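Hi everyone, sorry if this is the wrong subforum. Our group has a chain we'd like a structural model of before ordering constructs, and none of us has done structure prediction before. Sequence below.
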Amino acid sequence: MEQKKQNPKAEDETHIVSRRIQRISLHITPIPRPPHDHDSNLGLLPCARREKLEVETEKLSVYMRGKYRDIQEKIYEYFNARPELQTPVEISKDEHRELCWRQMCGLIREAGIRPLKYVVEEPAKYFAIVEAVGAVDISLGIKLGVQYSLWGGSVINLGTKKHKDKYFEKIDSLEYPGCFAMTELHHGSNVQGIQTVATFDPITDQFTINTPNDGAIKWWIGNAAVHGKFASVFAKLMLPTHDAKGVSDMGVHAFIVPLRDLKTHQALPGIEIHDCGHKVGLNGVDNGALRFTSVRIPRDNLLNRFGDVSRDGKYTSSLPTINKRFAATLGELVGGRVGLASSSVGVLKIANTIAIRYSLLRQQFGPPKQPEISILDYQSQQHKLMPMLASTYAFHFATVYLVEIYSQMKITHNEQLVGDVHALSAGIKAYVTSYTAKSLSVCREACGGHGYAAVNRFGTLRNDHDIFQTFEGDNTVLLQQVAADLLKQYKEKFQGGTLAVTWNYLRESMNTYLSQPNPVTSRWEGAEHLQDPKFQLDAFRYRTSRLLQSAAVRLRKHSKILGGFGAWNRCLNHLLTLAESHIESVILAKFIEAVEKCPDPNSQAALKLVCDLYALNQIWNDIGTYRNVDYVAPNKAKAIHKLTDYLSFQVRNIAKELVDAFDLPDHVTRAPIAMQSEAYAQYKQYVGF
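Answer:
Right subforum, don't worry. Here is the predicted structure as tokens:
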């Protein structure tokens, strides 16, 4: 009897040891078996390889890239045929600036790409152009954006017919290269605090532009140091009055200010132009600083869509307050954020392509007396790159949606849609650019020492992209705008108002949050349930509603003692997390919609797999939140973790097809370690072997 009692214990210990050995072995050969709904353990067995999904890259690529594939191919083909216009690895700041200018002139004047009309008429096509151009050189993408989206866009969107008639064609042809002069040395995010002034002189019928102090110098102005001939200058419009003050501040307006002589290219009288010098990245863009001293411009140079000054100095506007005029002005400039979000996804696609192709080619170690295996077969490499690849696909479809509603806004001018686009563009730009910045370092690390070679692009991509987190709105500031809008929508819900389109889910989700989590569903752990889009989306939205409710309670509590500003600052990290959670919910919702709409069954199956990985990986990354409120029971959390591992492995099996669907030619990725043929031969040739 005694012997019989001991045997089960010995068997248990043997089983535990075997399981530990098996888990360790997974770091070498992580080949899990597919989970079954009836198997709550979702066990991982080394030899149970599921049949690989069949993915037709061409069909997936057509669905991904849509109707603007042709114009992107035209851009790629132009630069492929012009190797002298491809940016070399080693290039000085001044050489890079001149090359960038020649690249842009070639694109416009030789390739016949004319972007300005698309800025208003077909924004989706414009953003497709910018993404393709940025894939060639991010500096070129930014310089193009300054010329057409910022300088050209400000003239079109903030001006009236007289401005379009005078400037449109010459901006489009690059005869009038220009700048967007908003940021000052002492004021970036706080645009209403800028100090440059434009004072109207009724005697001469002119505005006088002045920089009152060093803090008001226009700073980081793209195209200003070398190529710009004009600038849209943002300044406080001051009108003379007959009271003690002498002038009246009408708020920030935009003015067209000539910078250089059109023939000699010399700076005009009263204008000082200085070079901001060598930067961490984007050295193909000539950033400069501008100081104005009694620079006179005609009254017609006021971009007067939202406010005008008559010959006798009277101000008129369809908008009654400074704040409303300011909001309308900035609202017309959100296209820059939309473009940056789209371009950032383009950068992430390049980084994914390089890192994953390299990881498929590179072999290191393996089982005893057997060939070395691809480093993408290691679970650790899959954990670095597969969720990132899933996020890239998620961001792609989210930015496609953002571009769609931005285009609708430009056509309809629907006030509710304007507010929705403003908040959503702020949030997606902030979220995507922050993620891409971190991912570039992960991709570099995933490629080991070869990733550190400049020729393999990670350093350039990382340095050039880094500023995406700052310009067109600092990411932390933009996320606060999202949080503020969520709180506004929350207030509307409880006052019976109408929610904006993107926020509609809050009505139902908040009701779910205010009730207790379902003790039954919190324990469901089958793969069919975990891969159900409804479960995934409900989980994302539940978290957002929980964060929103608790943020509102905390703000009310702290505002009684600290006031509104102090309470906001006390809860700031909470509010940033809330904003990110909301954006993640929107991204997942748009990914799910894209999967459902995909017409090709094989592509749809691949996208579904990638979407599941994105959703469950995000849930696992914040599993503590779900566990704290018993939304997910311990056994379900364990199942999510195991299923996420399994999905990473399955995505690894089609990783080549997934990055090939980005359809980036070798001359665009330009990383020898990622070339689809003769990778190391090209790499050795570069270093002189």
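For your construct planning: Confidence is low (pLDDT under 50) at residues 1-11, 19-49. The radius of gyration is 28 Å.
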